[in-house]
């Protein structure tokens, strides 16, 4: 199944290449600008029909050109419009200069202001601000003059409609470059940028609308890279349908390692999530001291005494034990390091304490899984990521996607870089940004549930990247179904079959 255009993500550089390719193929670039600007004007009138004045803040590039077109269309509709430009109108070039000239030509016949300096804008009650300053192409901090306007607009509580991406947001990383508009709504064209999905860009974008302005789909697809939004089309071909003759071992045997007697809950949540996610068998492997605490809470999940590496080696003689989760509530970092070499030929989800166990010797972990197909899935949050990949974490020149991809290559693992904008990455450079998750998933034990879902997918034979991406989406979906009052214990009961994704 072909990925819809709306799921593709184009970097600002790739979008520039799309614009260039469109012009070279004979498409009228100014015609595209006119369609873009008019779509912005239509949205402004649709969502703010009672505006006393539309204030269009324009930048020196094509984003500003879209703004001039929008201003003219709004004026032609009878609205009161004020245009403010950052920089000198005489320095405008190409389509932006033409759009400005058309705006000036239309202005004298209507009671509208001509183009004024950006610094002259003073917010007024009843204003609706159309942000056409920089869009997604900014890669440096906004100038002080714009930062002051952003602050004034925010303090006045005025609605902002941004063209492409709120000015001040990095289109690649979603980072705030000094200051950024908080848009009520953003209008972008053809498809989205990573900065629309990555935080804090996503929070600044508001409601996002994607408008088709007529660029041929083939040109957009040719420029798209390996980064997409996470969704069922990324992994639906890998889910597999269980045939009528299947048995429990064909659906995989997932083993979750338990911590000591006082920290068994995390492992049980992972195990229960694995069971609800389709694993044929789920076993908790626990030290003797934790057997009674686990046994008191288990029914369909099996229990096995695994006290040390020697006992684990004996258990692993059964090759049907094909997928493991190590880390939730585990506690014993030394034992985690002892277990690693024994698990290197199996599918392993390393979470929480399992990650922390290798903070001083990450290369030991990476070397263990360096050969063959990807069998390791790492699920770090921000702090855990910094423990395994301190140099990548500290590199502010890299986006979260860049960091995740480089980490995946280094570790030869699928990476689930958790957060409100979870990124899933593979060693081959593929990556997905997940937006399908509610904020109330940020609760104790939620990550343990996610680890169990990943483990179940690996047990059933899904490749590591697809298993991770599907688990993140399914985890978020369960969160939506559970609602704001969810707890990790109740979350597992809202995991629905992948066939319903």
TrEMBL record:
Q: What is its EC number?
A: 4.2.1.136, 5.1.99.6
Q: Which residues does AMP bind?
A: 418-422, 447
Q: Identify one Pfam family in the record.
A: Carb_kinase
UniProt keywords, alphabetically: ATP-binding, Isomerase, Lyase, Metal-binding, Multifunctional enzyme, NAD, NADP, Nucleotide-binding, Potassium
Q: Which residues bind (6S)-NADPHX?
A: 62-66, 135-141, 164, 266, 329, 381, 448
Query: What does the note accompanying the cofactor annotation read?
Result: Binds 1 potassium ion per subunit.
Which positions does UniProt annotate for K(+) binding?
63, 131, 167
Description of how the protein assembles with itself and partners? Homotetramer.
* NCBIfam families cross-referenced by the UniProt entry: yjeF_cterm, yjeF_nterm
Q: Report the protein's function.
A: Bifunctional enzyme that catalyzes the epimerization of the S- and R-forms of NAD(P)HX and the dehydration of the S-form of NAD(P)HX at the expense of ADP, which is converted to AMP. This allows the repair of both epimers of NAD(P)HX, a damaged form of NAD(P)H that is a result of enzymatic or heat-dependent hydration. Catalyzes the dehydration of the S-form of NAD(P)HX at the expense of ADP, which is converted to AMP. Together with NAD(P)HX epimerase, which catalyzes the epimerization of the S- and R-forms, the enzyme allows the repair of both epimers of NAD(P)HX, a damaged form of NAD(P)H that is a result of enzymatic or heat-dependent hydration.
Please identify the protein, giving its name as recorded. Bifunctional NAD(P)H-hydrate repair enzyme
Lineage, broadest ranks: Bacteria, Pseudomonadati, Pseudomonadota, Alphaproteobacteria, Hyphomicrobiales
């Amino acid at each position: 199944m072909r990925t819809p255009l709306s799921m593709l993500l184009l970097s600002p550089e790739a979008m520039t290449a799309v614009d260039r390719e469109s012009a070279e193929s004979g498409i009228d670039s100014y015609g595209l600008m006119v369609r873009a600007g008019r779509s912005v004007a239509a949205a402004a009138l649709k969502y703010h029909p009672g505006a006393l004045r539309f204030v269009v803040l324009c930048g020196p590039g094509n984003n500003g050109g879209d703004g001039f077109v929008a201003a003219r269309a709004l004026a032609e509709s009878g609205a009161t419009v004020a245009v403010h430009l950052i920089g000198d109108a005489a320095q405008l070039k190409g389509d932006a200069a033409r759009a400005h000239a058309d705006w000036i030509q239309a202005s004298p016949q209507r009671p509208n202001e001509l183009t004024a300096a950006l610094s002259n804008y003073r917010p007024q009650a009843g204003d609706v601000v159309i942000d056409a300053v920089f869009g997604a192409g900014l890669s440096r901090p906004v100038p002080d003059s714009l930062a002051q306007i952003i602050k004034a607009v925010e303090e006045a509580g005025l609605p902002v409609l941004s063209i492409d991406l709120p000015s001040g947001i990095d289109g690649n990383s979603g980072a705030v470059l000094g200051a950024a508009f908080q848009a009520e709504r953003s209008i972008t064209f053809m498809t989205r940028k990573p900065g629309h999905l990555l935080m804090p860009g996503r929070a600044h974008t508001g409601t996002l609308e994607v408008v088709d302005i007529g660029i041929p789909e083939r040109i957009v697809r040719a420029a798209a890279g390996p980064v997409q939004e996470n969704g069922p089309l990324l992994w639906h071909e890998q889910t597999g349908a269980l045939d009528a003759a299947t048995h429990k071992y064909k659906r995989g045997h997932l083993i979750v390692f338990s911590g000591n007697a006082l920290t068994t809950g995390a492992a049980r949540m992972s195990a229960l999530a694995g069971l609800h996610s389709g694993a044929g068998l789920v076993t908790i492997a626990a030290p003797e001291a934790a057997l009674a605490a686990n046994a008191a809470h288990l029914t369909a999940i099996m229990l096995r005494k695994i006290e040390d590496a020697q006992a684990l080696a004996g258990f692993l003689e059964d090759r049907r034990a094909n997928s493991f989760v190590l880390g939730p509530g585990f506690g014993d970092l030394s034992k985690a390091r002892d277990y690693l070499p024994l698990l290197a030929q199996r599918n392993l989800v390393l979470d929480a304490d399992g990650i922390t166990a290798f903070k001083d010797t990450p290369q030991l972990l990476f070397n263990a899984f360096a050969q063959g197909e990807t069998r390791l899935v790492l699920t770090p949050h921000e702090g855990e990521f910094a423990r395994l990949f301190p140099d990548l974490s500290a590199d502010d020149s890299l986006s979260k996607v860049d960091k995740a991809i480089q980490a995946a290559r280094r570790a030869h693992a699928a990476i689930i870089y958790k957060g409100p904008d979870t990124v899933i990455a593979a060693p081959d450079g593929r990556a997905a940004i997940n937006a399908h998750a509610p904020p109330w998933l940020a609760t104790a034990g939620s990550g343990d549930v996610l680890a169990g879902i990943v483990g179940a997918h690996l047990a059933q034979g899904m490749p590591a990247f697809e298993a991770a991406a599907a688990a993140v989406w399914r985890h978020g979906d369960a969160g939506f179904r559970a609602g704001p009052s969810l707890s990790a214990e109740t979350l597992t009961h809202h995991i629905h079959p992948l066939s319903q994704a």
